[in-house]
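Budget justification aside, the reviewers requested a transparent look at the raw inputs and outputs of the sequence design task funded under Objective 1. We therefore reproduce one unedited record. The lines immediately below are the structure tokens for a 352-residue chain.
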């Protein structure tokens, strides 16, 4: 019997109205000084179904990305966690987005120890897994070394065009909930840096042991030593410290504050992240973002509450708040606007 789809409650009308009004005043793209705002993906089904962001003419992933790129200068790609995408796709993304637009890429499970979904692999790799007798899921540490190397190589091939173009923001290493703060796991993180010395890693810990007071400074020191960005989070059960471990980039991910859905056993992704921040909740991030912007060359603020248009609204809301509060120097905004204008002129010249 097919499990019925959960019915999502509607957002509070007053909260939705205030978030919408605030978003309408956001700069385009949503960037304030060195702080870029974006969402975790641009093709989430409930966002498309809401018809609250994309115009009717945007019926393809490419058209939606082009529209998205007019509103934001950053996107987080989570599809790379679930499957190995072809290089041709990242090459297309470069042409579908403006100059200076950046992609934060969520790492494939071979990097973080999550189980690999065999059904989502490219057909040639899927056949090799089937030969091993693996038809559903397998953990990376159970793979033959050669096959694990192949998975990682394909992921690297996908991100290479983005990196070569200077458009790769970060590789998000979101470690699983069972990845505890042990010396063995700390060493595993160091080994990743040794294996990939130039990748712009950003690390998000989900197990609370990494945030325990007696250990937390050592964790930050570890990430500083390997030049990896510590991912600050706003989540129902994980309000993390505000810390900079990589002067090139600071990262904040907003997961919403829906405690019931976030901790519900067996909850769907949509149930977990079904939350619209109120403007007052976002204003609590003015000082943390100012601190991050003062110590890092760039800050990425990514909204992962991707239900309906909530992430889009809240990313724009926080950008508006920073502008109207005069919280940050906006010199980078002028530089990006000039770069986009120059690109648009070049495109027109080529078409004439």
């Amino acid at each position: 019997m097919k499990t019925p789809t959960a019915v999502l409650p509607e957002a509070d009308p007053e909260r939705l109205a205030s978030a919408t009004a605030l978003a309408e005043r956001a700069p385009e793209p949503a960037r304030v000084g060195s702080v870029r705002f974006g969402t975790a993906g641009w093709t989430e089904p409930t966002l498309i179904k809401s018809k609250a962001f994309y115009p009717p003419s945007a019926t393809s992933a490419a058209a939606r990305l082009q529209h998205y790129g007019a509103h934001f200068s950053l996107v987080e790609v989570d599809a790379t966690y679930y499957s190995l995408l072809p290089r041709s796709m990242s090459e297309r993304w470069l042409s579908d987005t403006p100059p200076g637009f950046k992609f934060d890429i969520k790492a494939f499970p071979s990097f973080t120890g999550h189980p690999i979904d065999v059904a989502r692999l490219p057909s040639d790799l899927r056949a090799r897994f089937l030969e091993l007798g693996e038809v559903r899921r397998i953990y990376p540490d159970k793979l033959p070394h050669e096959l694990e190397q192949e998975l990682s190589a394909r992921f690297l091939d996908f991100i290479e065009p983005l990196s070569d173009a200077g458009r790769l923001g970060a590789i998000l290493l979101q470690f699983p909930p069972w990845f505890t703060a042990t010396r063995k796991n700390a060493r595993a993180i160091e080994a990743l840096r040794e294996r990939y010395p130039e990748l712009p890693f950003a690390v998000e810990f989900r197990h609370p042991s990494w945030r325990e007071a007696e250990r937390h400074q050592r964790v930050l020191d570890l990430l500083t030593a390997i030049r990896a960005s510590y991912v600050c989070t706003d989540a129902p059960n994980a309000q993390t410290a505000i810390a900079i471990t990589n002067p090139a980039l600071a990262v904040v991910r907003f997961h919403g504050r829906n405690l019931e859905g976030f901790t519900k056993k067996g909850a769907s992704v949509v149930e977990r992240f079904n939350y619209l921040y109120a403007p007052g909740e976002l204003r609590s991030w003015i000082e943390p973002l100012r601190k991050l912007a003062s110590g890092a060359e760039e800050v990425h603020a990514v909204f992962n509450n991707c239900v309906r248009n909530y992430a889009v609204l809240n990313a724009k809301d926080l950008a508006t708040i920073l502008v109207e509060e005069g919280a940050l120097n906006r010199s980078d905004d002028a530089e990006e606007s000039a770069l986009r204008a120059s690109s648009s002129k070049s495109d027109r010249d080529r078409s004439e």
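The CA atoms of residues 187 and 222 lie 10 Å apart. The chain has one domain: 13-113+148-345. Computational costs for records of this kind are itemized in the attached budget.
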